[in-house]
Amino acid sequence: MKAALVGSGGELLHRARRATGRERGPEAVVAGILDFAAELRAHGADRFGEPARAAGVAVPGIIDEEHGTAVYAANLGWRDVPLRALLGDRLGAVPVALGHDVRAGGLAEGRIGAGQGADRFLFVPLGTGIAGAIGIDGRVESGAHGFAGEIGHVVVRPGGIPCPCGQRGCLERFASASAVSQAWAAACGDPAADAADCAKAVESGDARALAVWHDAVDALADGLVTALTLLDPRVLIIGGGLAEAGETLFTPLRDAVRRRVTFQKLPEIVPAALGDTAGCLGAGLLAWDLLDTEPTGTTPTTATPPEVTT
Predict the structure, then answer these.
(1) Phi and psi angles of residue 210, each rounded to the nearest 5 degrees, phi first
(2) Alpha helices per DSSP H over 91-232
(3) pLDDT by residue (tens digit) across 136-183?
(4) Where are the beta strands (DSSP E) in 247-294?
């Protein structure tokens, strides 16, 4: 778990981490979030002279933002957890925002990160899987049922590798950090090899690594062109573990996308700016959005966004 105190302009005032404790079961995870949030609020009151005025929490899985419920998270064993109500009770009835971890990260990247100033952007983190956040005029679109932006389950290789979602050939089975890790481990014969090792081998000119990388970049470009055809973003922000390869990823990716576009407008393709703080900052921004008015002055003092990721 990552948690932070966030100022009204998205300033990171304080942050902390602790283990999720999911091995102790879903109830223990919820208890840990509540304890962590209470401790953070107390720290804010002690350091800044007043407690946080609102709280935000960003979690993975299926989220019902309207009712404040964490509907389902396979990795955490959650089903229908009324997280917003539980946090509100624990924190003394302060307003609480509940959001999806990727959309919260996208909100932060759009407002104060790599997409700042863009009226339309798409944030795509490449990690264990691939998700997306659709940014429109300073907010992130969740869709009619909370599933907007699931670019990782766009089929780019019909009939390809089976995906846990039930489809075959989904983007995240070919271009996520975990997919690259698996492909490189098989290619080099080292079960412990991962995507970062593959990127280093690419930089050294290893032919096997270049083939793995090329396949992943091609699949990613296919998925991204589908997304930009539908959404027409001004900026395409790529984050997550695979983006840490820097220009080893971005140079061939920009070329691959450019080769595929025809009538579409080519967006600016940039790396995410906020790293693993994006979710915390986004949760804090969600909390600030709950407040009708923001404080004036130069010393921001509020917002308590515990963020849970897996």
Answers:
(1) -60, -35
(2) 101-112, 172-175, 177-188, 195-203, 207-231
(3) 998 999 898 888 999 999 999 999 999 988 999 999 999 999 999 999
(4) 268-271
> Among 283, 302, 303, which Cα is nearest to 63's?
283
Q: What's the rounded Cα separation, in Å, for the pair 62 and 135?
A: 19
From 173, 150, 177, 175, select the one nearest 162 (Cα to Cα). 173
The predicted model scores a pTM of: 0.88
Using CA atoms, how far residue 298 sits from 13, 127, 301, in Å, is 13, 36, 10
Q: Exposure string (b/e) for 277-293, b if CB count within 10 Å is 16 or more?
A: bbbbbbbbbbbbbeeee
- For residue 274 the two structure tokens come to 């906020």
Give the pair of three-digit tokens for residue 199: 């990127």
* Local structure of 102: helix, strand or coil: helix
In this prediction, residue 304 carries a pLDDT of 40
Which tokens in the block code for residue 282? 């986004």
Of 147, 151, 145, the residue nearest 163 (C-alpha): 151
Pairing of strands 235-239, 120-125: parallel
Cβ(230)–Cβ(115) below 8 Å:
no
Which of these, 271, 231, 265, lies nearest to 133 by C-alpha position?
231
Reported confidence tier of residue 292, pLDDT bands at 50, 70, 90: low
Cα separations (Å) of 122 from 15, 140, 155, 244?
Answer: 26, 9, 18, 18
Question: In this structure, which amino acid lies at residue 47?
Answer: R
Residue with the two structure tokens 């932060």? 108
pLDDT given for residue 308 in this prediction: 38
H or E, element range at 239: strand 235-239
Asked whether residue 297 carries a pLDDT value surpassing 70, the answer given is no
Distance CA 80, CA 307 (A): 18
